[in-house]
Amino acid sequence: MLEIKNLHASVNGNEILNGINLNVKAGEVHAIMGPNGSGKSTLAQLLAGRDTYSVSQGGVTYEGKDLLDMDPEERAREGLFLAFQYPVEIPGVSNTYFLKAALNAIRKHKGLEELDAVEFLQLVKQRMKLVDMDETLLNRPVNEGFSGGEKKRNEIFHMAVLEPKLAILDETDSGLDIDALRIVADGVNKLRRRDNAIIVVTHYQRLLNYIVPDFVHVLVDGRIVKSGGKELALQLEEKGYDWVKDEAGKAAVQA
Amino acid sequence: MKYTTEKNSWYLSAFEKFEQSLNGESASRLHTLRRSALERFNSLGFPTTRHEEWRFTNISPILKTNFRPVLNPTAEGLSRKDVGQFAFGTRHLLVFVNGFFSGDLSTLDELPGDAYCGSLATAVKSDHPVLRQHLAQYATYDDNAFSALNTAFLRDGAFIYVPDGIVMDDSVHLLFIAAGKDHALISPRNLIVVGKNSQVSIVESYVSLATSSYLTNVLTEIVVGDHSVIEHDKLQNERRDAFHIASIHALQGTQTNLISNSISIGGSLVRNNVTSVLDAEGSECTLNGLALATGTQLIDNHTTIDHAKPRCVSHELYKSILDGKSRGVFNGKIFVRKDAQKTDAKQTNKTLLLSEDATIDTKPQLEIFADDVKCTHGATVGQLDAEQIFYLRSRGIDDTTARDILTFAFASDVVSRVHVDPLREQLEALVHSRLDQGRTLQD
Ligand SMILES: Nc1ncnc2c1ncn2[C@@H]1O[C@H](COP(=O)(O)OP(=O)(O)OP(=O)(O)O)[C@@H](O)[C@H]1O
Ligand SMILES: [Mg+2]
Fold first, then answer.
1. Which residue has the CA at smallest separation from atom 18 of ligand 1?
2. How many Å lie between the centroid of ligand 2 and the Cα of residue B259?
3. B290 lies in a domain?
4. Total domains in the fold of chain B
5. Which of A162, A199, B238, B402 is the Cys-Cys partner for B266 at CB 3.0 to 4.6 Å?
6. Residue B443: predicted pLDDT
């Protein structure tokens, strides 16, 4: 589904991604962990189409197509979804208005009929339950004045309505209280299917107890220095990142 | 300078013709007023950019044409069908063609008590007692050539009188249509007098069916009686080559509430002056404005809030959305007089620049002579937010639609403050189509 090959990217001349390689197949869940500033969000935003980063080497294929060649909206319509680490507030645009415009743009692209107000509302009501979202958040301006947790929940709510093939969740767990974490993770699990995939960016093992990953990758200084199964997350929780860094450093020296 | 004297003489000789057409009326009290206004206009001359009040707005394009004052009612062959497209379904629709009231085109429903909604000229003829007390008492023309010119050619316009203790259940729509091909000078004069404990919403809209450029030079005076509430909404949506100069001058009594929403979309050069004098304790005044300009349009909003007495509150939100090579001006004066302790005044001015060639001049002007007051003002000028655009696009919305959604949101912050529902809906549709249009022009 997604193939990242030797991806190098920089901002204002600063190299942030230093050769990322990652393969995500349909049905898989990948977790990306790594210290602050290691490039996790950069990777996520770049995949979603943010144009502040320039790619100097490598490339990304999504379902056989050159992902980096597509506009952000094209990527979304082809089933890519990013739950932002810091969802932006949009005063004056209601959450439902935005979501309806997004859903209908995607449906139109797929050759499906656009939903009318009634059909849309039905869908929204049903998906809202999935993440136990407060109905008042629907008619408020997008993210404006939402608490940290409400913003994250709203991102997953959008995901539930848009039903992406590949969802990238950038630290969706941070800012959620314990109950919310469980609810949101349950919601994500209900959206899991054989033909879709999820990349979860997180700092905490606790999310991975709920959304159990097939692979865990450790990103350090813009490079994936270690990959493993779900037990890797436990090791990281216990020992921190230093041992991975040390290991990676030794490997680099030996090479 | 050359222009100034030349133009004066054009309007002076037009005034002479006007006088001749008046016959007997020229000895009236009203005509004495007109004459002194004309004299004042003559000595002031049209303003240049050397006048502080006109620093950013060069009116010389207005002086290139000899606009002909419209002196008599002309229906211009308009039918109710022509009018329908501009109406929004209120029970009190007063239609003015080139500044003159048209009974045939208007829809007048029954009014409570001694209320009056109709032609100012008719009220003058019948010597309406309220007029005698209030006409031309609030908007001074001493230092404003356009106000002087309006007063010199004062003929007709709307007169609205709401007596004490009356809540008007439907809004009053004053629809000003410019028609004909004559490069007209249209000078409507409006007077709104609201007694004590009353409430009314009044909408002024300015539209064009004219086939040439023209100059609208309108003046509206508003008197808000004690404990009364007025919403005044103004829509300016005239031809792209029309000129529009407008002044609203309000005087507020004790514990009154005045809401003024001013939306400017059309015209080539537009100047709105909105002034409210908070002349009694415990009053509240809200001035909102939106300017949508593109091409080479210039929209200038000048506001003045005069806190003359203690414990009054004023809120002000003026926004501009400027595209193409358009220009915006905002000048917000707030006076807090020595007596006006416990004043609470807040002014906000925001501009969205949609193109690199659009410009805004913005100037807050706070003059505070009392010491126990709360006054804040803030101005921002910016483009659409790249992060917001990306967020929308990352959910599947194309770039153009994302920009439209954000621009509309910026505008709706003002439009949503119009409480007259059908008008607000009409305004929303107008803003939408105007944004579409702006984009097509841009492409
Ligand atoms: N626009 C930018 N300009 C300059 N530096 C940037 C920019 N965007 C990202 N960076 C830098 O790139 C590095 C990686 O940032 P990124 O947000 O991808 O980290 P992260 O792994 O998501 O961190 P965290 O765990 O704190 O969310 C950081 O050092 C950051 O400061
Ligand atoms: Mg991050």
1. A39
2. 46
3. no
4. 1
5. B238
6. 38
Q: Which helix (H) or strand (E) holds B429?
A: helix B421-442
**B225 residue type, one letter:** G
Among B394, B401, B403, the residue to mutate for chain A (most A Cβ within 10 A): B394
Q: Could you give the CA distance from residue B119 to residue B425 in angstroms, rounded to a whole number? A: 28
- Consecutive H or E run containing B131: helix B129-134
Q: Which tokens belong to A139?
A: 């008619």
- Compare CB distances from B395 to A76, A109, A141 and report the shortest one's residue: A76
Per-residue 3-state assignment (H helix, E strand, C coil) for B159-214? EEEECCCCECCCCEEEEEEECCCCCEEECCEEEEEECCCCEEEEEEEEEECCCCCC
- Flag whether B247 is in a domain: yes
- Whether the ipTM is more than 0.85: the answer is yes
Q: CB A90 to CB B392 under 8 A?
A: yes
Contacts 24+ apart (CB under 8 A), B81-88: B82/B177, B82/B209, B83/B175, B83/B177, B86/B175, B86/B177, B86/B205, B86/B207, B87/B173, B87/B175, B88/B173, B88/B203, B88/B420, B88/B422, B88/B423, B88/B425, B88/B426
Asked if residue B404 is part of any domain, the answer here is no
Angle at B22 between CA B18 and CA B26, to 5 degrees: 105
pLDDT of residue A133: 87
β-partners of residue B375 are: B345
Q: What pLDDT, on a 0 to 100 scale, did the predictor assign at position A128?
A: 92
Distance from CA of A106 to the nearest CA of B (A): 6
pLDDT tier at B63, thresholds 50, 70, 90: very high
For the stretch B168-190, pLDDT in tens is 999 999 999 999 988 999 999 99
Q: In what order do the strands lie in the sheet with A14-24?
A: A14-24, A2-11, A54-62, A65-66
Count CB atoms within 10 A of the CB of residue B379.
16
pLDDT tens figures, B149-160: 999 999 999 999
Best mutation site among A7, A10, A11 for ligand 1 pocket (most ligand atoms within 8 Å of CB): A11
Tokens encoding B326: 């358009």
Question: What pTM was estimated for this model as a whole?
Answer: 0.91
Closest CB to A105: pick one of B397, B412, B413: B397
Who's near B258: CB < 8 A, 6+ residues apart? B222, B224, B229, B230, B232, B250, B252, B276, B283, B284, B285, B286
What confidence tens digit (pLDDT) does each residue in A83-118 have?
999 999 999 999 999 999 999 999 999 999 999 999
Chain A contacts of B401, Cβ < 8 Å? 101, 105
User: Which range (B7-11, B55-59, B343-347, B349-353) has the least confidence?
Assistant: B7-11
Weakly modelled stretches of chain A, pLDDT under 70: 248-255
Token couple for B213:
């450029």
* Beta-carbon separation of A76 and B398 below 8 A: no
Beta-strand ranges (E) seen in B225-282 are 229-237, 243-252, 257-264, 269-278
Domain that holds residue B196: 5-280
B274 in a structural domain? yes
What is the DSSP secondary-structure string of B301-346? EEEEEEE-SSS-EEEEEEEEEE-TT-EEEEEEEEEE-TT-TT-EEE
pLDDT of residue B148: 97
